[in-house]
Design goal:
about 350 residues, Phosphorylase Kinase, domain 1, single chain, two-stranded antiparallel sheet, 2 domains, Transferase(Phosphotransferase), domain 1, five-stranded antiparallel beta sheet
């Protein structure tokens, strides 16, 4: 019943991206957001991938990041297939970004399309990726206040995407960016899809990254928005440890360990139990046991209030089929009132 309601709610998105006139609409969107190349000044490269690179730049007076994707120019079947996939990825990312407006989602500035070259211009995130920020720190060095603040930024951005029927499918610290004020924004929607598409077809493991990938994606099974919740669990774990998950395993070994052995990285012994409890719920093997991002935001906001007031955090309750138990659990999440004070003495907002 909930799935049917979500389908109806996002029918406009479905018609836009999955309707019979998709190519024409995609072309219209690209034309609407076409950048004036004479205003674009390309600066140094700040990141690169297998078929793309990202440069710092200026668009007029605005600092920007420029993602440039180069398609192969050969005529063999493999090159033709890669070109088609890259064009589809470009169209999907532009179609999505052009309609998203949220403080925790990277904002589109403009696009360019040339033969075998695709440009996506977004706001510049001056402090780079969350991955670079975390792995430049000592292990287990982030205080709970900062962990919760950064996690809230990610969860709010993901709640916004899921409310619009969008599944990211590759949520990881490399695709989370920090602006000049330390706010995290969700980026890189090139492998995203509408949930109806993810449910209707097998969710290919090619869309994500094994270290952060849900077991159902590794198995190429049908999947839904809960794959992003699993990935968020790994992101939250990284916030608590400042380490790469399964760092001593190859990607293939990670896939085997997660699927066949139900392996997860060891939880931080210094992290508050309530945060570790949320991590475990998010990376549950069963998608139905993973909370929705709306609930995750509510829990993290409760944690933030508790930390500010010097009160202990209450763990997310286990899911229950009993309506009364669910109601009591929801009340428990919102409440952190206690006569016991925590040992935290500084309740000010901590910025990285």
């Amino acid at each position: 019943e909930m799935d049917q309601e979500i389908m109806k709610k996002h029918s406009a998105w479905l018609k836009l991206l999955l309707g019979p006139k998709k190519p024409a609409r995609s072309a219209a969107i690209v034309e609407t957001w076409a950048a004036d190349r004479s205003k674009l000044l390309l600066g140094p490269k700040i990141a690169s991938g297998s078929n793309s690179r990202i440069h710092r730049g200026m668009y007029g007076e605005q600092p920007v990041a420029v993602k440039i994707m180069h398609a192969p120019v050969g005529d063999d079947d493999d090159d033709v297939q890669v070109r088609r996939e890259m064009e589809a990825q470009f169209d999907a990312e532009v179609s999505l970004l052009s309609r998203l407006r949220h403080p925790n989602v990277v904002r589109l500035v403009g696009v360019c399309r040339e033969p075998e070259v695709y440009w996506i211009i977004t706001e510049l995130m001056r402090r780079g990726t969350l991955s670079a920020y975390l792995h430049g720190r000592e292990p287990y060095s982030l205080p709970p206040e900062t962990i919760v603040r950064l996690a809230l930024d990610v969860a709010r951005g993901m709640e916004y995407l899921h409310a619009r029927g969008v599944v990211h499918r590759d949520l990881k610290p490399e695709n989370l960016m920090l602006d000049g004020g330390g706010r995290v924004k969700v980026a890189d929607l090139g492998t995203s899809c509408l949930e109806a598409t993810c449910r209707g077809d097998k969710c290919s493991s090619k869309a994500g990254t094994f270290r952060w990938m849900a077991p159902e994606m590794i198995h190429d099974k049908r999947c839904n928005r809960k794959v992003d919740v699993y990935s968020f669990g790994l992101v939250l774990w990284e916030l608590t440890t400042c380490l790469v998950p399964f760092q001593n395993l190859s990607p293939v070994q990670v896939a085997y360990s997660v699927c066949d052995r139900d392996a997860r990285p060891p939880l931080s012994p210094s992290c508050p139990p309530a945060i570790n409890s949320l991590i475990k719920r998010c990376w549950s093997t069963e998608p139905a046991r993973r909370p929705e991002f709306k609930q995750i935001v509510s829990v993290l906001e409760s944690y933030d209030r508790c930390l500010r007031q010097g009160l202990p955090m209450v763990a997310l309750p286990e899911p229950s089929s009993s309506p009364l138990a669910s109601l009591l659990g929801a009340f428990k999440i919102r409440s952190c009132t206690s006569t016991t004070r925590s040992s935290i003495t500084d309740h000010r907002r901590v910025h990285p």
